[in-house]
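Long-time lurker, first post. I've been practising inverse folding by hand and with some scripts of my own, and I keep getting stuck on stretches where the structure tokens seem ambiguous. Below is the full token string for one chain I'm working on. Before anyone asks, I'm not after the true native sequence, just a reasonable design that respects the backbone. If someone could post their per-position residues I'd love to compare against what I wrote down in my notebook.
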């Protein structure tokens, strides 16, 4: 090893790969559906990348201030190196190392797709590819949030095993977080730094989504692209889960509801096993993050859940040592990773065309180590321990000697094999960790890894003597009765897809067949899916659950307890006996499930029953779960998942819960889903998942103060009307509305008594109850449509590395900043397509790390110098022509956090926020920032 003392050559040429140029060109031409042939051999795109590397290699030296004796730099080789060049897929395949009998083949590659991050299949077996086309195109993550990514859809029409026919299903996306097929020609997805999940549908069958609908909101978070929520996933229990978010959502006739869950601590990957238990994949930890029990039961801390040595990867000799952790994390002399540091993608293999020994095994990728790992979950006394199957051989299931192999997702495929998503990329860490002066940046430049962009491959793993299943799924075109038969399929993918479609169709004609299958089928997996299909249709009966809870098969008894939770929450309290009886079951796993369900449902006498169970059952899992139910471990919230509620807020919600359950639940239902009144009607509208309730709080406050009568959005209710409760004090109104907005599967802000008082005063002249059509015109509503808006600012920068330099970033979690110190007369302006009466402006100005501060390694967050970036003194002005301005608000001071600006609505084409005063202290270099900007108007 030799450390060069030379300075970097000033003649170093920086090349923009032809591949990147092609990528930029193609991103401008994919607004229409494209039919593309995925040619496997001799890709022109790879050829262009190879030819783009410089012949003049850089000379490197330690960055200024680096300590050559530190673990990161001691012994670093900084000699000139040949660049790492991409290989054609056929050549890359020769670099894979697999156990005997396994084969790997490409099924879709560049130029048809670029930088794939995940895949998913619809009911006809068509493969949707999440193409993260803006990910790490430079070492500085430049343009990472440009709208150049897409979701493409691919078919193997000639059934030769290669996906040759594709279309651009959704184009011009900003680093999309996931793709979830959701019925016929429809997917759910969302973009980075956004808060809304949208449903995209192809209504005319041309392979391109032409209809966009809001599915749910309040789903996102801020942070770099590796730390945001991802992988929206349909669980066997018919709820939708994602990484990062500590809640689950579900579509109901009344709207999308949500429930809080434990913290999954995951980043990129969710899958489930044959029992329906979710497995979450960590990111920076390099390990599975949560897998012991279903996440909706909360968090349980299990010691020693990874076998000894589990965190040691056994990748092939890569030699380039491009690991973020520096030399201390690198195995010598082969340059491979010696401790897991990143992971992405996961799958519990549930197919039927690989060896039976793989069924139920857990697989995940470690793209830094260039491996796919096979895990054997060993369950003993109700607790799971994970073992690396190839640890004793100091190996992994799949390794590669190609440094560009980046496994980021995997899936059991419709053909019964396993697919591996290979981003085939030079850099696999986000720009926050590749900044100039870091060890990783030095290695990137040494091997020109930043030049390898715009590629990507998807591989199929097969086994000798086991041919892939060539039966083409056609579930989207089949009758629901045919879908029921697929619940018996030996490939778990078929069962999952059939169940999802049965539930989405809401076709009750198959209920009888499902009940027969759930109770009597000799196929245990079919019974499990039939149970959950009934649950998803709202057709699961209490007597059916009671029969299943006494089944001879413990796996079925467990599913009965889980599925019965839905009925219990809806008021079927007679299931109490089943949960209490199961606490004394002869099977340890059933006992553990009974404890978890009892805790989740708050079954009466919970503590006494748990104590008795722990005393009489010595199994390790029973003891651990029982003790942690009685004394929960302290769990802190993960990064970005909102702060804990204050004591006052908790007391407010507690008072609101009492009011709701004593008064409101009679009509609106115990769970906010509405009380059935017969003939398909409800006594009152559902409040859970209601967009009206979660929108501007003025709607709910007005209804509670003055009442409402008649139809709501054209729908009538058996209860007839909502009575006025204006005799109740402001605190009472604030308590119950806060509970409804935050505690009934909703996720909206709490309401203060002062806000109630203000609306009470404003509406004092209201005579009688509101009619919906009248009320909705009086309540501010958020302007969602920003097409045609012209957004400008006096100064513009992003609040994060690699962000968009655009004023429109203020509307997202990414955020907008002046980029320079606040000064008098700085402004932020919106020009509307037509005159608009803006009634309210909301934005968040959060504290941020002082600009120019360079952190030392492992600096605690509390020691980072923070500055308050709210606007010091500002006013709001409106204009008809953008030249002559009138004040719409007296000067006022901004504040840290949320800023809510109430305006006297005045129709105008232009509106702007203007600083009347900047930052006075010349030493305080503080910009003005805004995130999550929202504009409200009156109809």
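-- Answer (accepted) --
I ran through it position by position. Result:
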């Amino acid at each position: 090893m030799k450390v060069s003392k030379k300075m970097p050559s000033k003649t170093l040429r920086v090349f923009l790969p032809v591949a990147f140029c092609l990528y930029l060109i193609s991103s401008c031409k994919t607004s229409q559906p494209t039919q593309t042939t995925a040619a496997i051999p001799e890709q022109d795109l790879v050829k262009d990348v190879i030819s783009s590397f410089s012949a003049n290699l850089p000379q490197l030296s330690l960055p200024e201030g680096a300590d050559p004796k530190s673990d990161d730099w001691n012994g670093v080789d900084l000699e000139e190196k040949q660049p790492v060049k991409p290989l054609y897929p056929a050549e890359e395949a020769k670099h894979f190392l697999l156990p005997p009998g396994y084969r790997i083949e490409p099924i879709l590659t560049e130029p048809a797709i670029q930088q794939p991050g995940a895949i998913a299949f619809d009911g006809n077996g068509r493969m949707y590819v999440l193409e993260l086309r803006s990910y790490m195109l430079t070492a500085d993550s430049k343009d990472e949030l440009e709208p150049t990514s897409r979701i493409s859809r691919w078919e193997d029409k000639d059934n030769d095993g290669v996906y040759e026919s594709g279309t651009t299903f959704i184009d011009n996306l900003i680093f999309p977080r996931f793709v979830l097929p959701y019925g016929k020609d429809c997917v759910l997805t969302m973009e980075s730094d956004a808060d809304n999940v949208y449903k995209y549908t192809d209504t005319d069958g041309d392979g391109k989504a032409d209809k966009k609908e809001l599915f749910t909101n309040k789903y996102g978070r801020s942070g770099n692209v590796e730390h945001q929520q991802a992988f929206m996933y349909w669980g066997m229990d018919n709820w939708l889960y994602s990484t990062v978010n500590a809640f689950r959502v579900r579509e109901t006739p009344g709207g999308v509801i949500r429930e809080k869950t434990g913290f999954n601590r995951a980043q990129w990957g969710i899958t489930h096993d044959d029992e329906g238990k979710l497995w979450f994949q960590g990111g920076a930890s390099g390990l599975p993050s949560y897998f012991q029990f279903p996440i909706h039961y909360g968090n349980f801390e299990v010691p020693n859940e990874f076998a000894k040595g589990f965190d040691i990867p056994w990748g092939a000799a890569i030699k380039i040592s491009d690991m973020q952790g520096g030399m201390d994390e690198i195995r010598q002399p082969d340059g491979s990773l010696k401790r897991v540091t990143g992971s992405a993608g996961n799958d519990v293999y549930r197919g039927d065309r690989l060896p039976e020994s793989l069924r139920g095994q857990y697989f995940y990728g470690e793209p830094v180590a260039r491996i796919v790992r096979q895990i054997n979950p060993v369950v003993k006394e109700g607790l799971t321990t994970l073992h690396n199957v190839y640890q004793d051989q100091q190996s992994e299931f799949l390794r590669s000697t190609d440094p560009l192999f980046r496994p980021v997702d995997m899936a059991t495929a419709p053909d019964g094999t396993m697919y591996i998503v290979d981003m085939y990329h030079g850099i696999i860490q986000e720009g926050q960790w590749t900044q100039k002066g870091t060890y990783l940046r030095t290695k990137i430049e040494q091997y020109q890894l930043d030049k390898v962009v715009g590629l990507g491959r998807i591989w199929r793993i097969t086994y000798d003597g086991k041919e892939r299943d060539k039966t083409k799924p056609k579930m989207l075109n089949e009758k629901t009765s045919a879908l029921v038969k697929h619940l018996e399929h030996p490939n778990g993918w078929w069962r999952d897809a059939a169940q999802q479609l049965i539930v989405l169709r809401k076709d009750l004609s198959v209920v009888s067949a499902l009940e027969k299958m759930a109770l009597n089928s000799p196929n245990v997996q079919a019974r499990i899916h039939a149970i959950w299909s009934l649950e998803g249709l709202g057709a699961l009966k209490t007597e059916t659950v009671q029969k299943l809870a006494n089944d001879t098969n413990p796996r079925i008894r467990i599913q009965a307890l889980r599925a019965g939770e839905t009925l219990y929450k809806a008021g079927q309290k007679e299931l109490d006996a089943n949960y209490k009886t199961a606490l004394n079951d002869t099977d340890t796993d059933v006992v553990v499930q009974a404890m978890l369900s009892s805790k989740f449902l708050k079954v009466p006498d919970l503590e006494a029953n748990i104590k008795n169970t722990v005393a009489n059952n010595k199994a390790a899992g029973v003891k651990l779960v029982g003790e942690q139910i009685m004394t929960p471990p302290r769990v802190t919230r993960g990064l970005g998942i909102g702060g804990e509620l204050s004591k006052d807020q908790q007391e407010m919600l507690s008072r609101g819960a009492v009011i709701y359950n004593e008064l409101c639940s009679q009509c609106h239902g115990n769970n906010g889903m509405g009380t059935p009144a017969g003939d398909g009607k409800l006594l009152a509208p559902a409040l859970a998942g209601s967009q009206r309730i979660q929108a501007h709080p003025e709607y709910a406050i007005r209804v509670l103060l003055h009442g409402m009568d008649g139809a709501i959005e054209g729908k009538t209710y058996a209860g007839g009307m909502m009575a006025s409760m204006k005799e109740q004090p402001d605190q009472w109104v604030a308590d119950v509305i806060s509970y409804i907005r935050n505690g009934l599967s909703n996720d909206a802000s709490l309401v203060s008594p002062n806000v109630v008082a203000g609306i009470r005063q404003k509406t004092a002249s209201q005579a009688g109850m509101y009619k919906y059509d009248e009320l909705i015109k009086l309540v501010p509503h958020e302007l969602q449509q920003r097409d045609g808006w012209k957004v400008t600012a006096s100064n513009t920068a992003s609040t994060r590395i690699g962000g968009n330099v655009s004023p429109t970033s203020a509307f997202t979690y990414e955020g907008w900043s002046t980029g320079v110190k606040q000064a008098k007369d700085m402004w932020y302006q919106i020009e509307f397509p037509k005159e608009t009466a803006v009634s309210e402006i909301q934005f968040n100005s959060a504290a941020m790390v002082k600009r120019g501060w360079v952190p030392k390694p492992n600096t605690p967050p509390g020691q980072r110098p923070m500055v308050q970036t709210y606007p010091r003194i500002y006013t709001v002005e409106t204009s008809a022509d953008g030249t002559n301005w009138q004040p719409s608000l007296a000067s006022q001071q901004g504040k840290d956090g949320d800023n809510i600006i109430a305006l006297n609505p005045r129709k105008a084409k232009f509106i702007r926020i203007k600083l009347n005063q900047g930052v006075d202290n010349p030493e305080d270099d503080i910009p003005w920032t805004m995130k999550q900007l929202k504009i409200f108007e009156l109809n």
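A couple of notes from the structure itself: The chain has four domains: 18-146+155-174+202-208+299-463, 541-630, 647-779, 790-937. The chain has 20 helices and 44 strands. Happy to go over any region you disagree with.
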